[in-house]
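ok so for the tutorial part 2 we go from a plain amino acid sequence to predicted structure tokens. step 1 is just haveing the sequence, like this:
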Amino acid sequence: MPELPEVEALRDFLTEHLTGREIVRVLPVAISVLKTYDPPLTALEGHQVAAVHRHGKFLDVETADGPHLVTHLARAGWLHWKDSLPSGPPRPGKGPLALRVALETGAGFDLTEAGTQKRLAVYVVADPRQVPGVARLGPDPLADGFDEARFAALLRGERRQLKGALRDQSLIAGVGNAYSDEILHAARMSPFKLAASLTDEETARLYAALRTTLTEAVERSRGVAAGRLKSEKKSGLRVHGRTGEPCPVCGGTVREVSFSDSSLQYCPTCQTGGKPLADRRLSRLLK
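step 2 — the prediction. this is what the tokens look like for a chain of 287 residues:
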């Protein structure tokens, strides 16, 4: 799933390629991706792109004197830029193409979604806060005002485990499964440690890991073409998706805990005092 660093890189890319250009056609291919109907997709046509924003994992294409096109790529969605779009209209079918946006220059982009779980979401709204997922977002962890004191206040009294707290978009916007693993590894903390149990020193360490991990990932992704962002993300991960490989910090073996629809990866030596976490959904906290 694209997370804050990849969506930020897409925002940078689209800012360069879309700003000041006119949208001439918006072509839905998979109607299921459309989560709003008023204003319609055609309300975007004829308007220039004024800016591109990021809200957590949401991309927001703002048009001048027109609506916003807000997209959440979900788990298997992606954006594909094309300097020259095909001349004919896309054909609905069983392929991954969900939506096409065409510019007056002949360029544009496709939104696609692989797999059978169709969760890619597209909204056309007057204000991005009309999108429920945007309206409930917590603070952006890379915002200038997101300091250690604010982070500590968010975690104070939070009875969930750190893994779940970091992934909660209403608590902190933009962190998902992969980067929560990376942040916890950098902070040398168990994913099952309770957020409310952190000491001041541990809170400071987790805050530093959060900011550093995301900042470094954004910098790695900056300037990378949209089509190569997925591979760039994978190459920069130290533990997520690397079950059975050696930890790049200590050389120990990266282990995994599997759940019904996801998994987490961690290093027992770095994060849990050498103790493996029970690989079941109701694993107990190992300090």
